[in-house]
Design brief:
Layout lengths: L2 E3 L5 E3 L13 H26 L3 H22 L2 H29 L3 H24 L18 H16 L5 H21 L5 H33 L3 H5 L16 H21 L24 H27 L12
Antiparallel strand pairs: 1-2
Helix pairs in contact: 1-7, 2-10, 3-5, 3-6, 4-5, 4-7, 5-6, 5-7, 6-7, 6-9, 6-10, 7-10, 9-10
Length: about 350
C-alpha cells in the first residue's frame, strides 16, 4: 500500500489519510474501544446482579428503597394524579419514542437506522424477559416479601429501548443531543418504577445497562451501513472523506452536543459512584422484624434516605450511559450535504 507523509513527517497510508490531510479513525482502534466498552457494561450488569440480588446485605439495601417508596408514595400522601402519571410514564415513553421512530423513517426517507434500532430495542426486551424467567435466580434470605425475580426491570427496558431506538433513528448529527435529553427521559421512566414500588433500584440499573449494550451493538451496525451508503452516494471519495466526523485526528469537526454529552456522562458517573458510597450503610442489616411499608421505622432506617440513595443511583446510571451512546452513534456521522439529517 502506498505511503504519504503528513506534516509531522510520519508516513500515513493512503487508506488512513482523508482529503485535506485529516486522518480517519482506524477501524481496529474503534473495534477495540467497542469491545472494551461492551465488556465494561456487561461486567457492571453482572456485578449489580451479584451484589444486589444474590447477597443478603445487597438485597436488604435494595429492599429498603422499595419499601420506602411504598411507604412514602404509594401508601403515603402523594396526590393521586401524580401516582397515575408515574404509573403510565414508562408506557407513554415507549409509545412516544415508537411514534418518533416512524416519523424519522418518513422525514429521513430511510429504513437503515430505524429498522436496526428497532431490532436492538426488541433484542433488549427479549433478553430481559429471558433472563428474568429462565436464567437468573433470586435466593431467599427472609428479607423480602416478594422473592420473584424482578431483575432487570421490564417496564424500564421498554421505555429505555424506545429512547435508544429513537436515538439511532435520528440523523447522526442529532444523536448526541438526544443522548443528553434521552438520558433524562429514560431516567425518569426508571425513577417512576422505583418511586411507585414496582421495582428495586438494581432492577432499573440492570435494565439501563442491558439496553445500552444492545444500543451500542445496534449503533455500530447502523454506522457501518450508513458509511457504505454514503460512499455509494458520494460524488467522489475526496468530498466524502473531507467531511467525515470522527473523534480521532486533528481538525475534525464533531457533532453538536458532543461536549455536553461528555460533561453529562462525567456528572452521571460521579453521581453513580456517590450513590454506591452512600448506599453502603443501608446494607447493614439490623436486628428486629423485617421492614414493612406499614411498620414503624427507626431513625437509622430513614425511608427518605433509603429512597433517595436508590433514585440517585438510577439517574446517575442514566446520565452516564445515554450521552455516551449518543456520541458513539455519531462517530461515523455524515454531513447533511451527503444525505438528509
Amino acid at each position: 500500500m502506498s505511503q504519504q507523509h503528513g506534516a509531522d513527517g510520519r508516513p500515513h497510508s493512503t487508506a488512513e489519510t482523508a482529503a485535506g490531510g485529516v486522518r480517519r479513525a482506524h477501524p481496529v482502534r474503534a473495534t477495540v474501544l467497542l469491545v472494551v466498552t461492551l465488556a465494561a457494561l456487561v461486567a457492571a450488569f453482572v456485578g449489580v446482579y451479584l451484589v444486589f440480588v444474590t447477597t443478603r446485605s445487597g438485597q436488604y439495601a435494595d429492599e429498603r428503597a422499595l419499601v420506602a417508596a411504598l411507604r412514602l408514595v404509594r401508601y403515603g400522601d402523594a396526590p393521586e394524579l401524580l401516582i397515575t402519571a408515574l404509573d403510565n410514564l414508562p408506557a407513554a415513553v415507549g409509545i412516544a419514542c415508537g411514534v418518533g421512530v416512524l416519523l424519522c423513517m418518513i422525514v429521513r426517507k430511510t429504513l437503515l437506522g430505524p429498522l436496526v434500532a428497532t431490532a436492538g430495542g426488541l433484542l433488549a426486551i427479549l433478553l430481559t424477559q429471558l433472563l428474568k424467567r429462565e436464567v437468573l435466580e433470586r435466593p431467599s434470605f427472609g428479607i423480602s416479601e416478594a422473592n420473584v425475580v424482578s431483575f432487570p426491570s421490564g417496564h424500564t427496558t421498554v421505555a429505555a429501548a424506545g429512547v435508544m431506538a429513537l436515538l439511532l433513528s435520528l440523523g447522526p448529527g442529532l444523536r448526541p443531543i438526544w443522548g443528553c435529553l434521552g438520558a433524562f427521559v429514560a431516567g425518569a421512566a426508571g425513577l417512576s418504577t422505583v418511586a411507585l414500588g414496582w421495582h428495586r433500584p438494581s432492577d432499573v440499573v440492570g435494565a439501563l445497562l442491558l439496553v445500552t449494550v444492545c444500543g451500542l451493538l445496534a449503533a455500530s451496525v447502523v454506522s457501518v451501513l450508513e458509511e457504505r451508503r454514503d460512499r455509494h452516494d458520494a460524488t467522489g471519495a475526496d468530498s466524502l472523506q473531507a467531511h467525515l466526523l470522527t473523534p480521532f485526528g486533528p481538525g475534525v469537526t464533531r457533532p453538536a452536543g458532543t461536549g455536553a454529552c461528555v460533561t453529562m456522562s462525567t456528572i452521571g458517573l460521579i453521581a453513580t459512584v456517590t450513590a454506591g458510597i452512600l448506599i453502603k450503610p443501608l446494607a447493614a442489616i439490623p436486628d428486629g422484624p423485617r421492614l414493612r411499608a406499614d411498620s414503624e421505622w427507626t431513625t437509622a432506617q430513614d425511608p427518605v434516605s433509603a429512597l433517595g440513595y436508590g433514585l440517585l443511583a438510577v439517574i446517575g446510571v442514566a446520565l452516564t450511559v445515554y450521552p455516551l451512546l449518543g456520541v458513539w452513534a455519531s462517530r461515523w456521522a455524515r454531513p447533511s450535504a451527503l444525505r438528509p439529517a
